[in-house]
Write a structure and sequence with these properties.
- The structure is a homotetramer.
- Chain A is mainly alpha-helical.
- Helix content of chain A is about 75%, strand content about 0%.
- In chain A, helix 5 crosses helix 6 (about 90-100).
- The longest helix of chain A has 22 residues, at about 110-130.
- In chain A, about 40% of the residues are buried.
- The interface of A and B includes residues 98, 142, 144, 154 and 190 of A.
- The structure holds a DNA duplex.
Chain lengths: ~190, ~190, ~190, ~190
DNA sequence: CATGAATGAGAGTTCATTCAT
DNA sequence: GATGAATGAACTCTCATTCAT
């Protein structure tokens, strides 16, 4: 039931944004009365955070398998590939995690933030490992990580928020792959 | 007057985001009655589109001065710098143009879409000019342009939607500058 | 209209107390929509305060004519008579001013509190005048005033909140008159 | 168990007033489910009446010990002292008994009304005893009793409903004591 | 051109209450 | 005897919108 609420909410949040969704909407979607939702979540923002937590967990599960890859460079590349893959396959989740505007003041104390940070740290550490093993000339780990993240996030978020309409659907996919290859190459020459 | 409404609306956007602004709020800000706004805009979404057009125009004005720079590479770099600058200085506008989920079916017929496309085309043409003059080894103009755009959009949108909270304010600025320098360097080796 | 709202609200507040009355109730009573009320009053508590102000003004108008009576003792007696008379004739208003539980934290900054205080001060000054002219042996103005007030308020509030049911209606009136006479006599011997 | 519910309800009353207490609140306080309460009370108003009865009993227990005092005058004075003391110490109970607007048609058939009447009668009889023993010049027992009651009730109810805000907390206490002393003195000269 | 007055719908939230288990 | 799950109605309040004037 908690799960049923979360499922319905997820879809709605993704379609209409945090402010565009009402408790009533969610209740209607699952065909229960509004009050029922308050049996499972203290208020709207708690529901939202629960959703973000789900998303963060899913993302972690999607990404963390790469931890098994020994070579840091290969690990990094695979991490990137999967990051983008996650965004493309679960645009709603990605949106929730990295785009949706929501009561952000609260978020930092939340478990989902911790979870997100953990994955992020893993990413930075992988970059660090590459740096340590001289995969790059540059040794500015932080900036390298940030730059790669920006590129990946840019790709996914232009896609998620439908700002690629000037390209046909196939073109979009093609571009994504080519651009990923390109950034990898660019990174090699860092 | 139409302009006065738009100005007030824009400022409110800046402060509270799209969902946080009501017709009433705007009316209060310009010290007119709510009804008056309907003399100039059919409804809220028309006002919203007008706003998007404003944003697109502002962005064009912010970016197009670089058209005067002869050398395509310098033009490209300056374009990038200004793109990011625009996003940082007018996060609400940037949000409106590249992040906000709006009825997209409508948008494509709108002037603002044309306006946006024009600026985008200018960007792509500048990349093309660099390619033509062998600034890059790669000749895949489209992918180059897309990749650069992704990076810039990633930077701005992580900032605009407050996903950089794990860094201090100064750190954020510093990172932005360093990352921009880094992508420029990476591009040189393309 | 503002007045129409106040009239309806007054009756309802009196019948059911502050918490027992909803904006909806008031709206229904005047056959308007709930939202309309917010055109005239910021919120529920503002409406309540406006009502209290009305009540305070009415009470002042009922009492202040005695200011014309030169002899302080006569003035005091007449003040008391009218105080009780006010409570009996306008139980709803009296209730609002001296019994109804409502957001009291706010009240002290309100005009109605000032108005109420003014009348109260006039009462205390009248007692003081009696003291000054040796109408009492006691010179403890404050306590005398308070004691008289307690008696009057007790009478009215037992009546207003229907705690005199063990007496017949006529008996109640008779008791009131006799008790007033008695407290006057008691006061003379102070 | 019934008792446990009542105890919790009473405490909540004390803290938040009648309208501020919900069945849910009470259930939470005793760590049972809301439904459980309905096993012991038909509905909220039945609980409310039970509470009034409790209050009446508490008041009786607070006052009746004075029945042991032989001298009627001393008994009367002590009764008054305790009456006020009860109101100050249990403002919520006092409120329930003498101020709260409750369906009065119901109340008269209730045990609590009987209980209240009994205490009241005891009070009147004590006044009568004083009259019989010539403690007063006046022989109008009813009016004397009523007058004294009005004073005491006025004191307590101004306090309970927070109409003494113009005085500091200590001042309020001081005034109460002085006024009680004053009414006693005034009564002596009746 | 502009407004004042009004509304119906809807927001988040809490409530007293029911009832199958 | 007690609960968990649920509801429908109510709450205060805000909103986009309309329309006679």
């Amino acid at each position: 039931m908690r799960q049923r609420i979360l499922d319905a909410a997820l879809q709605l949040f993704r379609e209409r944004g945090y402010d565009g969704v009402s408790i009533r909407n969610i209740a209607e979607a699952i065909e229960y009365s509004p009050g029922t939702i308050y049996l499972y979540f203290k208020d709207k923002s708690e529901l939202f955070f629960a959703l973000q937590f789900e998303a963060a967990a899913l993302k972690r599960d999607h990404l963390m398998p790469v931890a098994g890859i020994e070579d840091p460079w290969e690990r990094l590349v695979e991490f990137g590939r999967r990051y983008i893959d996650f965004g493309m396959k679960h645009p709603d989740m990605y949106d929730l995690l990295f785009i949706t505007r929501a009561p952000m003041e609260y978020i930092e104390n939340q478990d989902c933030w911790q979870l997100g940070l953990a994955t992020h740290s893993f990413f930075v550490e992988t970059v660090q490992a590459c740096v340590d093993q001289r995969y790059f000339k540059s040794i500015d780990t932080e900036t390298i990580a940030y730059t790669l993240w920006c590129h990946a996030h840019g790709m996914v978020s232009l896609f998620v928020r439908e700002r690629m309409r000037m390209y046909s659907e196939e073109k979009r996919e093609e571009l994504a792959q080519k651009s990923f290859a390109m950034i990898v190459k660019m990174a090699e020459s860092l």
